[in-house]
């Protein structure tokens, strides 16, 4: 059994999210409203935490959305989103997920928005592993980490074990 190493403590995760919140605010100073969309469970948890932080430092109105897709076979099942096209039409959209590994999940999440005119589409991830198979990159990253393909990143976003683990 492989051992688990904690690579980000709870304070470090919070610090990185706070820094990203400031970056997003600075990049969108002239916007009245942005749309933050969390991908599946952990992406949505991060999106909620990020939204709270942005609201503390700015007066940006934020629409929070949830996007659900099958991460293993995203082409097998339609993407489900709790927003209508009118909610993000001609707006800045930021897709949030925990880890960017191959880029498949974020590519299919981004694909959902390609048929709608947007001001800008950005990606935010807590950890970027740099194993991209798909041509997608994160605009906002908490940690870029070079790993082997056999290693696994586990992100825990709630409770006393909150942190990022490498195994």
Compact overview of the structure:
The chain has helices spanning 10-27, 40-57, 85-88, 104-111, and strands at residues 5-8, 33-39, 61-68, 80-81, 92-100, 120-128, 140-144, 153-156, 163-166.
How would you characterize this protein structure?
This protein is an alpha/beta fold and 167 residues long. The chain has one domain: Rossmann fold (3-Layer(aba) Sandwich). It has helices spanning 10-27, 40-57, 85-88, 104-111, and strands spanning 5-8, 33-39, 61-68, 80-81, 92-100, 120-128, 140-144, 153-156, 163-166. The strands form 2 sheets. It has a 6-stranded mixed sheet. A hairpin with a 6-residue loop joins strand 8 (153-156) and strand 9 (163-166). Helix 1 (10-27) crosses helix 2. The longest helix has 18 residues, at 10-27. The N and C termini lie close together (9 Å).
The low-pLDDT segments are none
Give me the CATH fold name.
Rossmann fold
First-last Cα distance: 9 Å
Count of domain modules: 1
**In the CATH hierarchy, what is the architecture at level 2?**
3-Layer(aba) Sandwich
Described by strand count, sense and barrel closure, the largest sheet is:
6 strands, mixed
Question: What Rg is obtained from the alpha carbons, in whole angstroms?
Answer: 16 Å
Mean pLDDT: 91
Task: Note the total helix count.
Answer: 4
Strand content: 25-35%
Shape descriptor? globular
Order of helices and strands: EHEHEEHEHEEEE
Number of extended strands: 9
Give short descriptive properties of this protein.
167 residues; alpha/beta; six-stranded mixed sheet; 4 helices; 31% strand
List the helices and strands and how they pair.
Blueprint: E1 5-8, H1 10-27, E2 33-39, H2 40-57, E3 61-68, E4 80-81, H3 85-88, E5 92-100, H4 104-111, E6 120-128, E7 140-144, E8 153-156, E9 163-166
Parallel strand pairs: 2-3, 2-5, 5-6, 6-7
Antiparallel strand pairs: 1-9, 3-4, 8-9
